[in-house]
Design brief:
The protein has about 230 residues and is of the alpha/beta class. The chain has one domain: Rossmann fold (3-Layer(aba) Sandwich), CATH 3.40.50.300. Helices cover about 40% and strands about 30% of the residues. A six-stranded mixed sheet has the order 6-7-8-3-9-10, with helices on both faces. A four-stranded antiparallel sheet has the order 2-1-4-5, covered by helices on one side. Helix 3 packs across helix 4 and helix 3 packs parallel to helix 5. The longest helix is centred in the last third of the chain and has 18 residues. The chain is globular and about 45 Å long. The two termini are about 30 Å apart.
Length: about 230
Amino acid sequence: MFKVTNATGGYGKTTIIRDVSLEVKAGEIVALLGRNGVGKSTLMRYATGLIRATSGYVEIDGEMAPPSPAKRARLGLGYVPQGRFVFPRMSVTENIAVAAASNGFDAKKTVEEMLEDFPLLRPKAADLAGGLSGGQQQVLALARALAIRPKILLLDEPTEGVQPSIIDEMAGVLKRINADREIAMLVAEQNLDFCLSISERAYVMEKGAIHMETDRDSLRADKELQQELLGV
């Protein structure tokens, strides 16, 4: 239901990703693995329409994705960028509400749903997002992305700078939401344990291209591959 085909792009005259193709089926969680600098974040930004495409295209739920990131969001593409990028001078509630309202959903109802899904945010509901811890901001960024009721959710390094207890909680929430709402997910990560805990298969990137596709059991068993491609 989500496809990237022959994606080539980058920044200015610099090409970062070359001829990348991948697919996430309906209700599936897929990991996008690789060391720092291999192009995972650039591919995510390509998929959301945030960088210019030199070639290739994106499909969302069988439709060709329009150029505009906002229109891609309305088609059902959710995105949690690396670095979180919450609205720091807005409260937790306002961060969620504005995402819901901008995509035509009931803001009050969506806020309550997200606070139910992410109980650690409830005591912070009235607090400014900029005053939250890094882990709390990451959870808020995830809740805000889910507020648009996506069909496919892209997560870019969701565990970066997050304490282990919140990572475990995040993994549980993602698996539950995936099962209950059948939201497909593509998770770009270096944290192999996190990815293996939530995904059935993975693409491994190297030097701006897909180096290989593998399943969870094969990757877990191949320690040499883990060291060679992921440095773990």
